[in-house]
Amino acid sequence: MTGVSGIIFSNLHDRNIHELTKKRTTGAIPFGGRYRLIDFPLSSMVNSGIDDIYVISHHNYNSLVEHIGSGKDWDLARHNGGIKMLSPYITAYATSDSEQYVSRLESLKSISYSISKIKNEYIVLCDCNRIFSTDLTDIVRSHIKSGADITLGIGRATDSADNSIVETDEFGFITGIAKNVGKTDSDSVNLNIYVATREHLISMINDAMMRGYSSFSHEMLLRGRTEHKDKIGTYRFAETFIGVSSLIDYYNAGMAIVEDKDLYFSLFERSNFSVMTKVTNSAPTRYTKTASVHNSLIADGCYIAGNVENSIIFPGVHIASGSSVKNSIIFSDTYIGCNTCLSSVITDKNVMIGENVSLLGIPTLPIMVEEGRKL
């Protein structure tokens, strides 16, 4: 898709999933055994022909930088276009976390100079807190055809807490936004996917700076609609977007792709539209005679001698004999000793769980074990 650039926000939802973002951005959260959350908007952009992409980071970005690298795994290691990590921006007078940006509008203000240097006419903006695999070409075409100043993607989402409902007129232009309505079956949820021309986006950012706005949707968009007669259009996506607005959302999303094979293949294995991620060269997983695996996703480089059921196992995990892992998500390089029982547990990476340990959560309240813990 020529003439289109992409911007991905990697940090905006860190506070919603604080259990997993103490040392990483939302975009760097592992998912599905081998992916990161940023892989979904990034792959959707690349699969849609967008090859000039900017990733806005703010803090805890080392893991994200290591994951993306030069962008070669997404065919973005190129001289013209490619992927660019925009370094964190904190003003010279900022002295505390409260003065660092926490909103979409504030992050756009911080990179306004970089946006002004983008050569393409159209810009697609995406967050990292929803899991999806979709073609973004149609929303760009819809934006051009409608004559809107900015177009917002709407549809269905599974978030439990962070949904906003978009109200529209008969022509599909926004008349209002109901904020934080919680879990909903509405097909008019704000998916935080936007399309705008570069010139109009810069104009909106400059106007927001002069007026002291801090909210992208509730001030910059809605006030622009009423005060400047901006036309805010919508495009309705057919797919359901899996929302990750809390730890329980993350857990439910992982269990959903384990339990629903159709959902898994619709996300990861669509023809000519697969999700791309960093390629690692790991040895095959070793399964011993005592291993028993049922309905699970297991990455390379693991050692499995125990029972694994309805779980997601990331690379380098060791599960000793006599142990049982059920309905759990085990991050990379976790060691689980003999005769240990885990149920409804999320372990961050480099966790060591010894012998004869029992961690028994429930699906509505999984147990979270922090990175590097020894139990």
What report would you give on this structure?
- The chain is an alpha/beta fold and 375 residues long.
- It has two domains: 4-268, Spore Coat Polysaccharide Biosynthesis Protein SpsA, Chain A (Alpha-Beta Complex), CATH 3.90.550.10; 286-369, UDP N-Acetylglucosamine Acyltransferase, domain 1.
- Helix content is 23%, strand content 27%.
- The strands form six sheets. It has an eight-stranded mixed sheet with strand order 5-4-1-6-11-8-12-7.
- Strand 9 (165-168) and strand 10 form a beta hairpin.
- Helix 6 crosses helix 7 and helix 8 (247-259) packs across helix 9.
- It is elongated and about 65 Å long.
- The model is unreliable at 90-99 (pLDDT under 50).
Sheet with most strands: 8 strands, mixed
- Cα(first) to Cα(last) distance is 51 Å
Uncertain regions: pLDDT < 50 for 5+ in a row? Answer: 90-99
| Class based on secondary structure composition and strand pairing | alpha/beta
User: Helix count, per DSSP?
Assistant: 9
Number of individual domains:
2
For the secondary structure, the number of strands is 27
CATH topology of the largest domain: Spore Coat Polysaccharide Biosynthesis Protein SpsA, Chain A
- Note the beta-strand portion: 25-35%
What CATH first level of the largest domain would be assigned?
Alpha Beta
Strand order of the largest sheet: 5-4-1-6-11-8-12-7
CATH homologous superfamily identity of the largest domain: Spore Coat Polysaccharide Biosynthesis Protein SpsA, Chain A
Radius of gyration: 21 Å
What is the average of the pLDDT values? 88
Tell me the helix content: 10-25%
Question: What is the 3D form?
Answer: elongated
The CATH architecture classification of the largest domain is Alpha-Beta Complex
